[in-house]
Structure formats: structure tokens, C-alpha cells
Amino acid sequence: VTPRYSNQKYLQMLRAGRGLGSDSDGRPVVRVAILADHSTQQMTVVLKAALMELGFQALVLEADFSTAAQEVFDRQSGLYAFKPDYAFFSLAVQKFRDRFLQEVDPKRVAELAPAYLAETTAMVDAVSEAGVQVILSNLALPIERMFGNYSALTPHSLYGSVLAFNRLLAEAVSGRKRCQLNDVMYLSSRVGAEAFLDERLWLSSKYLCANQFLPEVARSVARLIAAGKGKVTKCLVLDLDNTLWGGVIGDDGLDGIVLGGDAAGEGYQLFQRYIKALKHRGYVLAVCSKNNEETALSVFRTHPEMILREEDIAIFIANWNDKASNIEFIARALNLGLDSLVFIDDSPFERDLVRTALPSVAVPELPEDVADYVACLEGSGLLEATVYSEADHDRNRMYREEARRTTEQIKYSTIDDYLKSLGMSIECGPFTAEQLPRIAQLIQRSNQFNLRTQRLSEGDCERYMRDPAAHVTIQARLRDRFGDYGLIAVVCCDVVSDELFVTELLMSCRVLKRGVEEYLMNRIFAECSRRGLRAVRGEYIKSGKNSMVEGFFRAFGYDLLESDELKQVWRLPVERYEPRVTHIGADPA
Amino acid sequence: MTESDVLERLTKIFRTVFEDDSIVARMEMKASDVKRWDSLSHVDMILLVEEEFGIRMSARELGALNNVGDLVRVILAKTA
Fold first, then answer.
1. CA distances from A533 to A495, A522, A569 (A)
2. Is the N or C terminus of chain A more exposed, i.e. has fewer CB atoms within 10 Å?
3. Which residues of chain A have pLDDT under 70?
4. A314 CB-near residues (< 8 Å, 6+ apart)
């Protein structure tokens, strides 16, 4: 058995990082500045390797850790000349300990955590104001408690003080736009503080942690960056036999499968409960199993110990086709990219097949024992969100409705008949404060129907909302007879002299070809006329994922002004736009 | 375990860490004799040695190694 963490594995990653060339080979480039109070030579290399694993070419700048503060507050410094996309602040608990042990005045000891935080956030804010996205690490929990169990209750213990600092830091991050938390406290506690913190390495070389855990820290940062760029998983594709229950339903029958009862049976139930909880947090569930459909469904319908029910599954595929084809079908039916799927299957054969046929699907290496399934999924780092709102609770239901629509569509002879039959109504208006988190989330998640992929942050959206004279904002919710899609489109425009410039226009792929595109364009031109502007100017910026909207402006009759490999500029005067007919009724909102 | 057993296993580690397949560990070998043996790769090497031999070096031992022979003697003492 290969251990999960080892110096061998660390060294492999270090060598992978050293071996990386400077040619991006078409991969998106991210520029990351590491601002740390510990040594970072190894971290820099390992972080490059971690970003490469996720398909990014990284340029990493290490700021000398003794001068990090000066770099941050001086706009002329090398830090800003580097033009980083991300600033990664990495804090060593040993540095915090140095300060803590120096303080003698009890009052100052008690106030160290907020004071240390204030120093940190001052740097964070300076960088953030310069337009750089921030990733901020919290502290590993220290070995030193000083008062035994009582330590957790008082900031006069190092342990208590670090706990207080981490709590304040989490509040500071959640209160800031353009700032993400890298949870080193979690990573270190998962492996244990005694293993994570190697005092010898701190004393000799100021290392944040034992080398073998550096890949874990770097991968965590890389995943935050990827998530911020819209690379998040959205759907769990589940095998059934020996994954959701023990045994094979087709052979063992309803009475013979292992579910509930003994330790293994409880294990499968625990895994199902966890999966169900993920569903309630916005993950879409699909089933992909080699079974007869009726046999497989019978477990969901009649087994008394089942936790997941038929209605928890957005799309249920049980047949004898190969799993790669079935997974492609699932992605199409749900209108999700293959790279947003996680395939969970106990069979090494099926995992291998899917990895080979569909390399962009994430396939965690599920362990033998069901008791380790949850830890495997958590350890895989595939569950990374940048934001959570209560609207996510219902996402699975919307996808389930979507899968039903896909089947329904076959019944109607023309697309117009079908669209009319949907009974769609839209609720459309400028941004509102309550909607901002949802709007920011849609901006982060939309990849394919996204014209410029500017990834405006919640803060950016708020600025747009607060200045309606200079901007046009549109958010739209769609409903039809199958259900409510929730927020599905976002538009931000700038008034530039006598024209309207479309800064961001994106839409959820779930509502493609329903007439929402036309509805939005009608609305943009209506807004243009109302303000007495003369034309709309738009751009298509190639992102590698948005080729579906390459012809978007042409379809509306825009004139192409400029075009190169990466960008097209389009313009259409107001008097030449003919409003489009849609089958969408307006909700009076 | 003999001195030459240890040297043989060290040779494998050195080749991995110092990225040179022609290295052969010798008792009198020093950091200055090896191209990529600097303070950073020294730490990587020591940690791999710990993993390979199932031992733990003290902070003092980390700093007190003058040549490969010193390292071999520490390993032999700790695995005896």
C-alpha cells in the first residue's frame, strides 16, 4: 500500500514542477504572487505543478518574506510590476508563536489575535484594492496549549489565541470580495499537527510544514484558483452495485443486498446520507449502472433501508451500454460539461475505462472499504465551491425537470410548438441587492454561453447596480410548466458616449434555445432607445470554452468591426435592430 | 546492515534527489562534490533517508553532518 503522503510523492511533484517549461501550450496562464512569512522555494515549484495538474500554466513570483509588507504597500514594487492575478498569503503558525511568546503584558497577549489579523488584512486590502484576487491561509493549530484542556477557552494560551485568530480570519474573508480562504487548519488537523509541523525543519530552514504535506497545501491553493475560474464540479454520477449498496441487485435480489443492518450495511447508508446532503448543497445526482432499469429502480422504490430515493436522482441510466457512452449522454441530457462530472464507481475496470475514454471527467480512486468512501471523496478535493446560497438547495430538482423536458421535446413536431407548450414566463429587471450573491455565482459558473468571461465579482456587480445612469444591468429568472429555473441570465453594460457596450453577457446553458437570448437582446435595445443611445457594441472574447457563442452577434445582424484570433468586435445601430419574437411571457416584476 | 548496504541505498536516494544517475555514494563524499546538493535538496535528501530507513534525525544531527560517512554512521547507530 502506498501511503497517501510521503516524501517520495513530494519529490515527484517537485521534479514535475522543476521540469515545467515556460511554453503554455495553449493552457490558460495564471500569475500568482506568493507572500509568505516562511521560506517558499519549494512551495513555488510545487504550486506550479499543482496548477499544471488542473490545466493551468503558472507564473509564480516569490516575494522575499522579510519584505512582503513593503512590497504590498508600494504600488511601484516588483509585486505590482509582476501584475499578479492572485496573491497567495501564506502564514506560518510558528511566526505567530514568535509574537505570542514575546508579549508579556496580559492585555496585549489577549489582543494579539485581533491585532495580528488587522496587520494581515491591511496587506490583503492593499493588494485587493489593486485589483488582485487574494487567497489567504489560516494557521495550523499549534502543539503548544500551555493550560491543557483549558487552553481552548482562553486567548492567553497559544492554542486559544490561534483558534481566535482563525475564527476572526474566516469572518474577515467572508466579509470581503475577491478573497478566498485556504484552510490550512483543516489540512493540518486532518493529518495531525505532530506530523504536519516539523519543528526541525522550521528551526533549520523556516519551512511551513513537513515537505510531504506541501503538495496538499499547494493543491488546495490550485483548486481555489481553478474554482474561481469556473472549474467546479456540479454533478455526481453514481454507480449502484457495491457503491450505493453491497452486493449485486441482479444476482442477490432485494433481500440479498447489503444495506443497513450490519457494519457494512450501515456504511453504505452513511455514504448515501452524505451523498444526499451533497444534493441539498447543490450537487446534481445521476445514476449510471449496468443493470436492468426496472431491477435497479426497484431498490429505490421499495427497499426500506434506502436513503436516496428516485426523486433525488436527476437522471437515472441503467442499461448494458458502456459507461463512457452513458456518461456522455448524461452530460448532454443535463446540459453540463464533462469536466463538471465526478464519476463514483467501485469497479477499477469502469473507472479506468471512463478515465481513458473521457479524460475530463473526474474519477476518484474509490477505496475497497465502504467505510472510507466519504473520506476519499473529501480528500479528492473535487468538492470546491466559491459561494453557497440557499437557491442551490433546489438545483437537483431543476436538473431533474430538465431531463424530463429533454424527453418531452421528442413529442412535438416543431421547435415552435414545443416552446409554446412550455408556457415560459420570465422575470427580468436590473440587479437587486438580494440577488447579488446569486448573480456573482452564475458569473463564476457559466463557461459556455459567456461572451467575454470577465468573471465580474460580487463587488463589481454591486458597483454596476449602484450607478444605473452609467450602466445597464439585467438579471432574468425563467419559469415554465415543469418548474422554476431560478436566475438564468446576467447582462452588464456600460454607457460609453452615445453607445451601449456589453461588458458581460452570459446565460445558463440549461435554457439554451428557448428564446431567452432573443428576449435579452430585445431588452438591451429597448434600454438603448429609452436612453436615446445610438448603437450597441459587443465583443466576443475566446475563452476556450465559449465557442458556442462565437456567432452570437452575427445572428442578430451586428456588423463585424474588428477581429483577430482572440477577439471580435461587433456593432449594431439601434434603428437597424428588429425586435425578435419569443414564446416567453413577461412576469410583472 | 553493513556500511556498503547503507551506501547502496543512499546511492538510490542521491540519484533521485540530486537528479544525476551517475552518482555513487562514498564515505568521504561531501555536499560540495555533488552539483545539486544545496541546503534545500539537503533537507529533501535527509527526509527521504528517514523514510527509507525508518529513523528520525535530531535537529543537532541535521546540522552536524560533514560528509556521507557521518550520515552512514548515524543511520547504522539508529538502526542497530
1. 8, 15, 18
2. N
3. 1-2, 64-66, 407-415, 587-589
4. A235, A284, A285, A286, A334, A396, A399, A400, A402, A403
Confidence (pLDDT) at A62: 87
**ipTM (interface pTM):** 0.88
Give the contacts of A406 (CB within 8 A, at least 6 positions apart): A333
Which residues in chain B are closer than 8 Å to A199, comparing Cβ atoms?
59
Q: Output the pLDDT for position A134.
A: 96
**How close is the nearest chain B Cα to the Cα of A9, in Å?**
10
Nearest CA among A9, A1, A377 for reference residue A216: A9
CB B65 within 8 A of CB B71: yes
Count Cβ–Cβ pairs < 8 Å, chain A vs chain B.
37
Question: Given the C-alpha cell 457494512, which residue does it identify?
Answer: A264
> Which of A8, A10, A200 is the closest to B59 by Cβ?
A200
Higher pLDDT, A396 or B8: B8
pLDDT for residue A547:
83
Cα of A223 to nearest chain B Cα, Å? 25
Give me the pLDDT at residue A589, please: 42
**A56 within 8 A of A222, measured Cβ to Cβ:** yes
Residues 6+ apart with CB under 8 A from A329: A317
Alpha carbon A218 to its chain's center: 17
Report the gap between the CA of A57 and the closest CA in chain B (Å).
24
